[in-house]
Recover the amino acids of this structure.
């Protein structure tokens, strides 16, 4: 079984240290929710793993099946089995979803190998059926004039087509309405048996009512300070984060 390991990871933005020794191991098929107050470095973690150039890894390692991805280009990281939503442009006028996905799938293939069009559409339609997505959807231009829910649908479809081993999803800033929330949840639940390992960063306890996580981690000041099962998310909803911070301060 594949695993994604984050080992004593340190990340800086410019001179500022944001992530300060984070450890986390995700096995294929597991959903790990990362929660925590604003500004604790959750998005920084996701973006750095995605290879965003503004984020410098100053220590530690990120490995897929024992192999470090830190020296890899963004497309190599994807080929190693990671799905990183950030690598995709948010809006591509004039490019249909079907063609965009086709290029994305082609880009994952070994050099010299050609994508067979009939097979591609067959696979696309079977994934769309699984995710209950209307066929008309794929003729629309990528993210052009999309609602929050449609953007999510496009992202989930990308994920289904690329069949990654691990997905890192940051739902913090996307302003998910209930419709979008359901699309993400239904998509993730359909794909997790793949098996897909998921790091699900979210503020929303409500999302975790639909996607029941195997593990919940609280991030505070650049580290994971508490881990538990799905009940931890309920406790956080009832009591907030202050008690976790206090518990952590008492241990330090
Ligand atoms: P979270 O996702 O947990 O809310 P972030 O990772 O977005 O937290 O932010 C962590 C810290 O890093 C914050 O203090 C934020 O201001 C800072 N930060 C995030 N992105 C940038 C950036 N591009 N440039 C400078 N500071 C940043
Ligand atoms: Mg964030």
């Amino acid at each position: 079984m594949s695993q994604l390991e984050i080992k004593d990871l340190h990340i800086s933005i410019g001179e500022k240290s944001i992530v300060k020794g984070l450890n986390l191991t995700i096995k294929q098929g597991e959903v790990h929710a990362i929660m925590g107050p604003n500004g604790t470095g959750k998005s920084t973690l996701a973006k750095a793993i995605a290879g965003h150039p503004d984020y410098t890894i100053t220590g530690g390692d990120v490995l897929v099946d024992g192999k470090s991805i830190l020296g890899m280009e963004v497309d190599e990281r994807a080929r190693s089995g990671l799905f990183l939503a950030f690598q995709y442009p948010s809006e591509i006028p004039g490019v249909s979803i079907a063609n965009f996905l086709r290029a994305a799938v082609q880009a994952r293939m070994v050099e010299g190998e050609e994508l067979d069009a009939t097979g591609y559409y067959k696979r696309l339609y079977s994934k769309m059926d699984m995710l209950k997505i209307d066929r008309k959807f794929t003729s629309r231009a990528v993210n052009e004039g999309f609602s929050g829910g449609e953007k999510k649908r496009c992202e989930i479809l990308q994920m289904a087509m690329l069949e990654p081993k691990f997905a890192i999803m940051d739902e913090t800033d996307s302003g998910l309405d209930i419709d979008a929330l359901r699309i993400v949840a239904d998509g993730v639940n359909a794909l997790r048996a793949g098996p897909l390992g998921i790091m699900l960063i979210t503020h929303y306890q409500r999302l975790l009512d639909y996607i029941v996580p195997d593990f919940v981690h609280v991030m505070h000041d650049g580290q994971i300070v508490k881990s538990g099962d799905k009940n931890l998310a309920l406790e956080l909803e009832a009591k907030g984060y202050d008690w976790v911070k206090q518990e952590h301060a008492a241990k330090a």
